[in-house]
Amino acid sequence: MYMANLTKNTRIKKKKKDLINMLPNSSINTYISYNIMLLPPKKLSDDISVMSSFVRKTYSMHKDPMPWIAHISLAYSDDMIKMDELIEIISKLKIKCKKILPFEAKINNFGSFNKNRLGYPVYLRVENHNSLRRLHKIASSASKQKYKKYPNFIPHITIAYYKKPFKDLDNKIKELNIAGFVKKFRVNSIFIGVKIKDSDQWKLTTIKLKRELRNT
Question: 15 with 90: CB under 8 angstroms?
Fold first, then answer.
């Protein structure tokens, strides 16, 4: 029992050290925000970035003032939390994610949401695969968010914000969908983005899904 506790404490200390190293000038008591998310592979992420730039310029949409990275949010912090709390979240996610096999996700054209503080979000739709719903439930549970409060999970990648009336935006979305943007990518991992200020870039840590057994 003593050795087991010693090993566990060593692992926790390493996790704390790794997180602190991710964020310069931080400590275990530093308050941070986080986002549990999926990230497309680099080639697809680059394509999405080009599409985002095109949409913003063509339709006079304003740029998100915060650093942008193409991602699908599974769960995120409503409030700042201490880094210590994130250690617990990561530990839960690692256990749960080992039960989910890698799967294929599909981006299927464009959509938009109701207005928020930045405008009307324009996004790329991501088909709501069963494994994606499971990951959302796991991430929400690990983050201590009530999953039942988020029954209408709509996986998406936000690419722009539109300021004009929503009726006008509807025509723009139709135009974009005629051109089309349909892509598939493999999901092997989830990512946790961590930052101290909104203006910071996300610092990423990776949690892998269950390892696939291949016939040789």
Answer: yes
Could you tell me which of 34, 101, 45 has the C-alpha nearest to residue 71?
Answer: 45
User: In the prediction, which pLDDT does 37 show?
Assistant: 95
d(CA 23, CA 15): 13
Residue pair 181/73 in contact (Cβ under 8 Å)? The answer is: no
State how far the Cα of 195 lies from the Cα of 146, in Å rounded to an integer: 23
Write the pLDDT tens digit of every residue in 108-164. 999 988 877 777 889 999 998 899 999 999 998 888 775 555 567 889 999 988 876
- Dump the DSSP string for 67-116: -----EEEEE-SS-EEHHHHHHHHHHHHHHHTTS--EEEEEEEEEE---B
Q: What percentage of the chain has pLDDT greater than the value 70?
A: 76
Q: What is the pLDDT of residue 215?
A: 55
CATH number of the 2-208 domain: 3.90.1140.10
Pairing label, strands 103-112, 81-82: unpaired
Q: With beta carbons less than 8 A apart as the criterion, state whether 4 and 57 touch.
A: no
Per-domain residue ranges of the chain? 2-208
Computed on alpha carbons and rounded to an integer, the radius of gyration of the chain in Å comes to 19
Q: What is the DSSP letter of 119?
A: B
